[in-house]
Amino acid sequence: MKNKRIVVRAIVAVSVTLAGINCWAQSPKLKMTTDIPKSITAPDKVETSLGTLEYFDGVPRPKTVETVYDYLDRSRAVQVFLNSIPAMSVTTLREGQASVGADTCNKICIWDSLMDSESLLLTGNTSTMYAVGFLDLQKDGPSVIDLPPNMLGILDDMEFHYMTDLGVAGPDKGKGGKFLVLPPGYKGDVPDGYFVVPSKTSGVWVFMRGYLDKNQPLGKAIPAASANIRQNLKVYPFAKKSNPPAMEFINVSGRNMNTILPNDYSFFEKLHALIQTEPESYLGPEAKGMMAAIGIEKGKPFNPDARMKKILTDAAAIGNAGARAISYFPRDPGNLLYGKDSTWVMAYADKDTTFTRNGAYRLDPRVLFHFGYICVSPAMAVTVAGKGSDYGLNMLDSNKQVLDGSKTYKLHLPPNPPAKDFWAVTMYDTQTRSQLQTDQQFPTLGSQDKGIKKNADGSYDIYFAPKAPQGQEGNWLQTIPGKSWWIGLRMYGPLQPWINKTWRPGELELVK
């Protein structure tokens, strides 16, 4: 009986307490009381995607405070991850190049025998000769790129922002010349006789392609392009112009080199390291604030506690999922090459290399590009009939299903593909966005391949399967059971039917 009275008293006490809370929440009518809109108050309990959030008269209870702070830290970290993909991509390019010895401005990676699938590099192609390097303006000061003729290239900064074109699309018009790249905030004298390029960051990626002479067989055109670069390209600090260091060219054809940005906690470690090498003006106040909120600041150590490290690990996983969803299932109409009924997409939404609309960043298109592609230049998005190159991308079959490496697919290219020079289809790995690694050294087929078979009407059928369909060995690219894949269709010297879309490739059809 005594225990029963204790329980009753406890129930009454709780009821009185709750009644007091409810009365307080309802606010009794007093002399100065006015009607308070519900829209500006917090109820005692509210159900959300984070669970039940609880308050005492608008003040979060301890468990709610913990839940909300975890969410804020996680959401800010996810946004930092997604917004920093451009910077991380160019950072890992620098790390990858340094890993094979290209760690100073006079050391250049060159694919002497073109790029095969050994190199992990975002959407590299097998048809042109790449040569890449980096400038360190913090260490070297103003730096010179003495460019040979017959080149095509770009300078991008450590935010992957466009700086200038080199070669045919640049101020030298393909004739070659000396470019002088100035460090952030440079106030010194600027000599005559240079194409002057100021930089906002200390690091600068130097991307170059050597032209392959279309009038020569590849066996002669490839070594000629390499010789032009090796014999004539010079990169050096301006301060050493009277006695520049000897050039070193590192042949990376057939060599393992990883330049792909990480998808895990190390992303944030690398971002912190990058911030330390760049000037205070490198980031705007909003980006700096978001990074500072998760412990990434210039001049301060990055040492998250166990709670924050767990949150950052989770945020990297969420950011990675977001980047892959955006990349393989884009929802911005500007990325859809032929509209929503087709699976063909393009890397630059609406062919805009600034990723802006009405002065605002287009966040998804920016993530899509920098997660899967490199090289930012307006020249890459301008399609001129008979010049340069243009391409379409495809990650899904005609039913918008993920491509399965254990199955057989067919791509039909209608008669007379509109390419003045040549066209090529290249396969990529969905994990690395680099060339798919199979038994085929170059996972590419195109009009330059001698064994490819043309249909009677001038069209082509390309097959993708673990084994070549009988009679289609020359029109076959190998896939891997248990893996997915995707393709890029490049038109070199695209003609008007490609540009105005009166000619368009078929969808990827599952062959049953």
UniProtKB/TrEMBL annotation:
Supply the alphabetized keyword list: Signal
Gene3D superfamilies attached to this UniProt entry: Domain of unknown function DUF1214, C-terminal domain, Domain of unknown function DUF1254, VPA0735-like domain
The record's section on SUPFAM superfamilies has: VPA0735-like
Q: Quote the InterPro entries the UniProt record gives.
A: DUF1214, DUF1214_C_sf, DUF1254, DUF1254_sf
One Pfam entry name: DUF1254
Q: Which domain of life is it from?
A: Bacteria
- Looking at the record, the residues that make up the DUF1254 domain are 106-237
Where in this chain does the record put each DUF1214 domain?
393-495
Signal peptide (from-to)? 1-25
Protein name, UniProt field: DUF1254 domain-containing protein
This chain's source organism reads Novipirellula artificiosorum
Lineage of the source organism?
Bacteria, Pseudomonadati, Planctomycetota, Planctomycetia, Pirellulales
